[in-house]
Amino acid sequence: MMSDYSIGALSRQTGVKVPTIRYYESIGMLDAPDRSPGGQRRYDAQHLEQLRFIRHGRDLGFGLDDLRALQGLSRQPDRSCDAADRIARQQLADVERRLAGLRAVRKELKRMVAQCSHGVMDECHVIQTLSDHGLCDGDHAAHNKG
Amino acid sequence: MMSDYSIGALSRQTGVKVPTIRYYESIGMLDAPDRSPGGQRRYDAQHLEQLRFIRHGRDLGFGLDDLRALQGLSRQPDRSCDAADRIARQQLADVERRLAGLRAVRKELKRMVAQCSHGVMDECHVIQTLSDHGLCDGDHAAHNKG
DNA sequence: CTAATCCCTCTAGCGACTGGAGGTTCAAGG
DNA sequence: CCTTGAACCTCCAGTCGCTAGAGGGATTAG
Protein backbone atom coordinates (compact mmCIF):
# COMPACT_ATOMS: atom_id res chain seq x y z
CA MET A 1 0.00 0.00 0.00
CA MET A 2 1.28 3.43 -0.76
CA SER A 3 -0.82 5.21 1.87
CA ASP A 4 0.34 4.66 5.40
CA TYR A 5 -1.25 6.55 8.26
CA SER A 6 -0.43 6.69 11.93
CA ILE A 7 -3.38 6.52 14.29
CA GLY A 8 -3.18 10.28 14.72
CA ALA A 9 -3.28 10.87 10.98
CA LEU A 10 -6.28 8.56 10.68
CA SER A 11 -7.92 10.46 13.49
CA ARG A 12 -7.43 13.78 11.70
CA GLN A 13 -8.71 12.35 8.42
CA THR A 14 -11.94 11.04 9.95
CA GLY A 15 -12.65 13.17 12.96
CA VAL A 16 -12.66 10.06 15.14
CA LYS A 17 -10.61 10.46 18.29
CA VAL A 18 -7.51 8.34 18.79
CA PRO A 19 -8.78 6.39 21.83
CA THR A 20 -12.02 5.76 19.98
CA ILE A 21 -10.13 4.21 17.07
CA ARG A 22 -8.33 1.90 19.45
CA TYR A 23 -11.65 1.13 21.10
CA TYR A 24 -13.19 0.17 17.75
CA GLU A 25 -10.32 -2.17 17.11
CA SER A 26 -10.66 -3.71 20.56
CA ILE A 27 -14.30 -4.59 19.97
CA GLY A 28 -13.69 -5.85 16.46
CA MET A 29 -15.36 -3.00 14.61
CA LEU A 30 -12.20 -1.95 12.81
CA ASP A 31 -9.66 -4.36 11.38
CA ALA A 32 -6.41 -4.51 13.29
CA PRO A 33 -3.67 -2.87 11.20
CA ASP A 34 -0.06 -3.87 10.73
CA ARG A 35 2.43 -2.50 13.19
CA SER A 36 5.67 -0.59 12.77
CA PRO A 37 8.88 -2.26 13.99
CA GLY A 38 8.35 -0.33 17.23
CA GLY A 39 4.79 -1.58 17.62
CA GLN A 40 2.79 1.42 16.42
CA ARG A 41 -0.31 1.01 14.27
CA ARG A 42 0.07 1.68 10.55
CA TYR A 43 -3.19 2.11 8.66
CA ASP A 44 -3.90 2.04 4.93
CA ALA A 45 -6.61 3.39 2.64
CA GLN A 46 -8.93 0.48 3.40
CA HIS A 47 -8.87 1.26 7.09
CA LEU A 48 -9.63 4.87 6.27
CA GLU A 49 -12.68 3.84 4.27
CA GLN A 50 -13.80 1.43 6.97
CA LEU A 51 -13.54 4.07 9.65
CA ARG A 52 -15.38 6.65 7.56
CA PHE A 53 -18.19 4.14 7.14
CA ILE A 54 -18.39 3.69 10.89
CA ARG A 55 -18.20 7.40 11.53
CA HIS A 56 -20.93 8.20 9.09
CA GLY A 57 -23.12 5.47 10.44
CA ARG A 58 -22.63 6.69 13.99
CA ASP A 59 -23.51 10.21 12.90
CA LEU A 60 -26.75 8.82 11.56
CA GLY A 61 -27.43 7.22 14.92
CA PHE A 62 -26.85 3.58 14.03
CA GLY A 63 -25.65 1.40 16.86
CA LEU A 64 -22.35 -0.37 16.54
CA ASP A 65 -24.13 -3.70 16.26
CA ASP A 66 -26.13 -2.44 13.30
CA LEU A 67 -22.99 -1.13 11.67
CA ARG A 68 -21.26 -4.43 12.18
CA ALA A 69 -24.18 -6.15 10.48
CA LEU A 70 -24.13 -3.65 7.62
CA GLN A 71 -20.39 -4.11 7.20
CA GLY A 72 -20.89 -7.85 7.02
CA LEU A 73 -23.66 -7.50 4.46
CA SER A 74 -21.63 -5.16 2.31
CA ARG A 75 -19.02 -7.86 1.97
CA GLN A 76 -21.58 -10.14 0.31
CA PRO A 77 -22.27 -8.18 -2.90
CA ASP A 78 -24.66 -10.78 -4.37
CA ARG A 79 -27.03 -10.90 -1.46
CA SER A 80 -30.37 -9.15 -1.54
CA CYS A 81 -30.22 -5.77 0.13
CA ASP A 82 -33.40 -6.40 2.09
CA ALA A 83 -31.57 -6.91 5.34
CA ALA A 84 -29.66 -3.66 4.96
CA ASP A 85 -32.84 -1.89 4.01
CA ARG A 86 -34.62 -3.24 7.05
CA ILE A 87 -31.92 -1.98 9.36
CA ALA A 88 -32.10 1.47 7.79
CA ARG A 89 -35.89 1.58 8.01
CA GLN A 90 -35.77 0.56 11.63
CA GLN A 91 -33.32 3.34 12.29
CA LEU A 92 -35.59 5.81 10.54
CA ALA A 93 -38.54 4.65 12.62
CA ASP A 94 -36.44 5.07 15.74
CA VAL A 95 -35.49 8.58 14.76
CA GLU A 96 -39.13 9.47 14.06
CA ARG A 97 -40.08 8.20 17.48
CA ARG A 98 -37.40 10.24 19.15
CA LEU A 99 -38.39 13.31 17.19
CA ALA A 100 -41.98 12.97 18.33
CA GLY A 101 -40.85 12.59 21.92
CA LEU A 102 -38.54 15.56 21.73
CA ARG A 103 -41.21 17.75 20.18
CA ALA A 104 -43.53 16.98 23.07
CA VAL A 105 -40.73 17.71 25.50
CA ARG A 106 -39.90 20.98 23.78
CA LYS A 107 -43.51 22.10 23.93
CA GLU A 108 -43.61 21.44 27.64
CA LEU A 109 -40.28 23.14 28.33
CA LYS A 110 -41.38 26.17 26.34
CA ARG A 111 -44.46 26.49 28.50
CA MET A 112 -42.37 26.18 31.61
CA VAL A 113 -40.01 28.99 30.73
CA ALA A 114 -42.67 31.18 29.10
CA GLN A 115 -44.70 31.21 32.30
CA CYS A 116 -41.76 32.32 34.39
CA SER A 117 -42.58 35.57 36.10
CA HIS A 118 -39.01 35.98 37.42
CA GLY A 119 -40.25 36.00 40.97
CA VAL A 120 -39.28 33.71 43.84
CA MET A 121 -39.01 29.95 43.96
CA ASP A 122 -42.25 29.64 45.84
CA GLU A 123 -44.21 30.56 42.75
CA CYS A 124 -41.80 29.13 40.22
CA HIS A 125 -43.51 27.51 37.30
CA VAL A 126 -40.51 25.39 36.51
CA ILE A 127 -40.74 23.69 39.89
CA GLN A 128 -44.51 23.66 39.92
CA THR A 129 -44.69 21.95 36.57
CA LEU A 130 -42.15 19.34 37.60
CA SER A 131 -43.96 18.71 40.86
CA ASP A 132 -47.35 18.28 39.30
CA HIS A 133 -47.55 16.36 36.10
CA GLY A 134 -51.23 17.30 35.90
CA LEU A 135 -50.21 20.86 35.04
CA CYS A 136 -48.87 19.80 31.69
CA ASP A 137 -50.09 18.01 28.64
CA GLY A 138 -48.56 14.76 29.74
CA ASP A 139 -47.80 13.56 26.24
CA HIS A 140 -44.10 13.58 26.84
CA ALA A 141 -43.31 10.09 28.01
CA ALA A 142 -40.53 7.72 27.09
CA HIS A 143 -38.71 10.04 24.73
CA ASN A 144 -35.39 8.46 25.63
CA LYS A 145 -33.89 5.58 23.71
CA GLY A 146 -36.76 3.13 24.27
CA MET B 1 -50.00 11.13 55.64
CA MET B 2 -50.46 7.75 57.24
CA SER B 3 -49.75 6.39 53.79
CA ASP B 4 -47.11 3.76 53.82
CA TYR B 5 -45.87 2.24 50.60
CA SER B 6 -43.57 -0.65 49.92
CA ILE B 7 -41.00 -0.11 47.21
CA GLY B 8 -43.16 -2.09 44.82
CA ALA B 9 -46.20 0.06 45.56
CA LEU B 10 -44.12 3.20 45.00
CA SER B 11 -42.91 1.72 41.75
CA ARG B 12 -46.47 1.11 40.57
CA GLN B 13 -47.54 4.61 41.59
CA THR B 14 -44.77 6.32 39.68
CA GLY B 15 -43.78 4.01 36.86
CA VAL B 16 -40.21 3.99 38.16
CA LYS B 17 -38.74 0.51 38.37
CA VAL B 18 -37.83 -0.94 41.72
CA PRO B 19 -34.06 -1.18 41.12
CA THR B 20 -34.11 2.39 39.83
CA ILE B 21 -35.71 3.61 43.05
CA ARG B 22 -32.97 1.91 45.05
CA TYR B 23 -30.43 3.42 42.68
CA TYR B 24 -31.83 6.91 43.25
CA GLU B 25 -31.54 6.40 46.97
CA SER B 26 -27.96 5.13 46.63
CA ILE B 27 -26.87 8.28 44.81
CA GLY B 28 -28.74 10.58 47.14
CA MET B 29 -31.48 11.63 44.74
CA LEU B 30 -34.27 10.20 46.84
CA ASP B 31 -34.40 10.42 50.63
CA ALA B 32 -33.78 7.14 52.41
CA PRO B 33 -37.06 5.97 53.95
CA ASP B 34 -37.68 4.30 57.27
CA ARG B 35 -37.47 0.55 57.38
CA SER B 36 -39.85 -2.11 58.59
CA PRO B 37 -38.69 -4.27 61.54
CA GLY B 38 -37.47 -6.75 58.95
CA GLY B 39 -35.47 -4.12 57.07
CA GLN B 40 -37.76 -3.35 54.15
CA ARG B 41 -38.23 0.19 52.88
CA ARG B 42 -41.43 1.99 53.90
CA TYR B 43 -42.20 5.14 51.94
CA ASP B 44 -44.64 7.95 52.66
CA ALA B 45 -46.46 10.57 50.61
CA GLN B 46 -43.44 12.86 50.58
CA HIS B 47 -41.30 10.22 48.96
CA LEU B 48 -44.01 9.69 46.40
CA GLU B 49 -44.00 13.38 45.55
CA GLN B 50 -40.23 13.48 45.42
CA LEU B 51 -40.04 10.51 43.08
CA ARG B 52 -42.76 11.94 40.82
CA PHE B 53 -40.71 15.11 40.56
CA ILE B 54 -37.66 13.12 39.50
CA ARG B 55 -39.64 11.02 37.09
CA HIS B 56 -41.23 14.00 35.43
CA GLY B 57 -37.91 15.78 35.19
CA ARG B 58 -36.26 12.73 33.64
CA ASP B 59 -39.09 12.49 31.13
CA LEU B 60 -38.32 16.05 30.16
CA GLY B 61 -34.70 15.09 29.64
CA PHE B 62 -33.14 16.81 32.65
CA GLY B 63 -30.03 15.15 33.99
CA LEU B 64 -29.97 13.94 37.55
CA ASP B 65 -27.56 16.71 38.50
CA ASP B 66 -29.97 19.33 37.21
CA LEU B 67 -32.80 17.71 39.10
CA ARG B 68 -30.76 17.65 42.26
CA ALA B 69 -30.13 21.35 41.82
CA LEU B 70 -33.80 22.05 41.17
CA GLN B 71 -34.79 20.03 44.22
CA GLY B 72 -32.38 22.06 46.31
CA LEU B 73 -33.72 25.32 44.93
CA SER B 74 -37.31 24.33 45.55
CA ARG B 75 -36.50 23.97 49.22
CA GLN B 76 -35.55 27.66 49.39
CA PRO B 77 -38.94 29.26 48.68
CA ASP B 78 -37.71 32.85 49.10
CA ARG B 79 -34.93 32.68 46.57
CA SER B 80 -35.24 34.17 43.16
CA CYS B 81 -36.25 31.63 40.59
CA ASP B 82 -33.60 32.78 38.13
CA ALA B 83 -31.39 29.76 38.70
CA ALA B 84 -34.27 27.36 38.10
CA ASP B 85 -35.26 29.31 35.04
CA ARG B 86 -31.73 29.17 33.68
CA ILE B 87 -31.60 25.40 34.04
CA ALA B 88 -34.90 25.04 32.23
CA ARG B 89 -33.83 27.36 29.43
CA GLN B 90 -30.61 25.45 29.00
CA GLN B 91 -32.55 22.25 28.76
CA LEU B 92 -34.81 23.79 26.15
CA ALA B 93 -31.80 24.91 24.13
CA ASP B 94 -30.38 21.43 24.37
CA VAL B 95 -33.62 19.90 23.14
CA GLU B 96 -33.74 22.33 20.21
CA ARG B 97 -30.21 21.35 19.28
CA ARG B 98 -31.03 17.68 19.37
CA LEU B 99 -34.17 18.27 17.33
CA ALA B 100 -32.16 20.01 14.64
CA GLY B 101 -29.67 17.18 14.55
CA LEU B 102 -32.35 14.52 14.41
CA ARG B 103 -34.18 16.30 11.62
CA ALA B 104 -31.01 16.30 9.52
CA VAL B 105 -30.51 12.63 10.30
CA ARG B 106 -34.07 11.81 9.39
CA LYS B 107 -33.76 13.56 6.07
CA GLU B 108 -30.69 11.55 5.23
CA LEU B 109 -32.20 8.25 6.34
CA LYS B 110 -35.30 8.94 4.30
CA ARG B 111 -33.19 9.43 1.22
CA MET B 112 -31.32 6.22 1.92
CA VAL B 113 -34.42 4.08 2.16
CA ALA B 114 -36.31 5.90 -0.61
CA GLN B 115 -33.55 5.15 -3.08
CA CYS B 116 -33.58 1.46 -2.32
CA SER B 117 -34.31 -0.51 -5.47
CA HIS B 118 -34.59 -3.81 -3.59
CA GLY B 119 -31.78 -5.28 -5.60
CA VAL B 120 -28.52 -6.75 -4.37
CA MET B 121 -26.00 -5.43 -1.88
CA ASP B 122 -23.64 -4.41 -4.62
CA GLU B 123 -25.90 -1.55 -5.63
CA CYS B 124 -27.37 -0.90 -2.20
CA HIS B 125 -27.91 2.77 -1.50
CA VAL B 126 -27.85 2.23 2.22
CA ILE B 127 -24.30 0.94 2.03
CA GLN B 128 -23.27 3.37 -0.66
CA THR B 129 -24.45 6.34 1.32
CA LEU B 130 -22.69 5.17 4.43
CA SER B 131 -19.50 4.54 2.50
CA ASP B 132 -19.41 7.88 0.82
CA HIS B 133 -20.36 10.85 2.89
CA GLY B 134 -20.15 12.96 -0.25
CA LEU B 135 -23.38 11.37 -1.44
CA CYS B 136 -25.39 13.09 1.22
CA ASP B 137 -26.02 16.57 2.48
CA GLY B 138 -23.50 16.23 5.25
CA ASP B 139 -25.34 18.46 7.69
CA HIS B 140 -25.96 15.68 10.13
CA ALA B 141 -23.27 15.83 12.80
CA ALA B 142 -23.35 15.51 16.57
CA HIS B 143 -27.05 14.76 16.84
CA ASN B 144 -26.84 12.16 19.55
CA LYS B 145 -28.46 11.73 22.94
CA GLY B 146 -32.11 11.38 23.30
C1' DC C 1 21.78 13.53 19.86
C1' DT C 2 18.28 15.70 21.85
C1' DA C 3 13.78 17.36 22.49
C1' DA C 4 9.19 17.36 21.31
C1' DT C 5 5.58 14.94 20.00
C1' DC C 6 3.57 11.08 19.18
C1' DC C 7 2.23 6.43 20.40
C1' DC C 8 1.72 2.10 23.45
C1' DT C 9 -1.06 -0.79 27.13
C1' DC C 10 -3.84 -0.95 30.96
C1' DT C 11 -7.25 0.43 34.02
C1' DA C 12 -11.03 2.99 35.53
C1' DG C 13 -14.77 6.12 34.90
C1' DC C 14 -19.00 8.47 32.80
C1' DG C 15 -24.62 8.59 32.90
C1' DA C 16 -28.47 6.34 34.14
C1' DC C 17 -29.79 2.61 34.77
C1' DT C 18 -30.72 -2.91 34.42
C1' DG C 19 -30.31 -7.61 35.64
C1' DG C 20 -28.95 -11.68 38.30
C1' DA C 21 -27.58 -14.54 42.34
C1' DG C 22 -28.54 -15.91 46.64
C1' DG C 23 -30.80 -15.09 50.73
C1' DT C 24 -34.77 -12.85 53.95
C1' DT C 25 -39.38 -10.93 55.07
C1' DC C 26 -44.16 -10.28 54.57
C1' DA C 27 -49.13 -11.17 54.07
C1' DA C 28 -52.72 -14.18 52.99
C1' DG C 29 -54.92 -18.73 53.02
C1' DG C 30 -55.75 -22.99 55.45
C1' DC D 1 -50.03 -21.16 64.01
C1' DC D 2 -48.01 -22.66 59.81
C1' DT D 3 -47.04 -22.74 55.14
C1' DT D 4 -46.52 -20.83 50.80
C1' DG D 5 -45.12 -17.71 47.34
C1' DA D 6 -44.56 -13.13 46.11
C1' DA D 7 -42.06 -9.39 47.24
C1' DC D 8 -38.15 -7.71 49.34
C1' DC D 9 -32.98 -7.34 50.69
C1' DT D 10 -27.69 -6.60 49.38
C1' DC D 11 -24.00 -6.96 46.40
C1' DC D 12 -21.95 -7.27 42.07
C1' DA D 13 -21.61 -7.11 37.13
C1' DG D 14 -23.10 -5.55 32.76
C1' DT D 15 -25.10 -2.18 29.28
C1' DC D 16 -23.50 1.60 25.36
C1' DG D 17 -20.08 4.18 23.37
C1' DC D 18 -16.83 6.15 24.48
C1' DT D 19 -13.20 9.21 27.42
C1' DA D 20 -9.32 10.10 30.49
C1' DG D 21 -5.22 9.19 32.98
C1' DA D 22 -0.86 6.82 34.45
C1' DG D 23 3.42 5.36 33.24
C1' DG D 24 6.07 4.18 29.91
C1' DG D 25 8.28 3.45 24.63
C1' DA D 26 8.75 5.10 19.51
C1' DT D 27 9.41 8.39 16.00
C1' DT D 28 10.91 12.45 13.84
C1' DA D 29 12.69 17.25 13.00
C1' DG D 30 16.54 19.97 13.70
Topology (SSEs and partners):
Two copies of one chain form a homodimer.
Chain A: H1 7-14, H2 18-26, E1 34-35, E2 41-42, H3 45-59, H4 64-74, H5 82-114, H6 125-131
Chain B binds a DNA duplex (30 and 30 nucleotides) through residues 6-8, 17-20, 22-23, 27, 36-41, 58, 63-65, 144.
Quick structural overview:
Two copies of one chain form a homodimer. By secondary structure, chain A is an all-alpha fold.
Cα Rg of chain A: 23 Å
The end-to-end distance of chain A, rounded to whole angstroms, is: 44 Å
User: Fraction of residues of chain A in helices?
Assistant: 55-70%
SSE class of chain A: mainly alpha
- Which regions of chain A contain 5 or more consecutive residues with pLDDT less than 50? none
- CATH class membership of the largest domain in chain A: Mainly Alpha
> What name is given to the CATH topology of the largest domain in chain A?
Multidrug-efflux Transporter Regulator, Chain: A, Domain 2
Q: How many strands appear in the DSSP assignment of chain A?
A: 2
Number of separate structural domains of chain A:
2
Identify the biggest protein-protein contact and residues per side: A-B, 58 and 59 residues
For the biggest β-sheet of chain A, the strand order reads 1-2
Series of secondary-structure elements of chain A, N-terminal to C-terminal: HHEEHHHH
Oligomer: homodimer
The largest β sheet of chain A comes out as: 2 strands, antiparallel
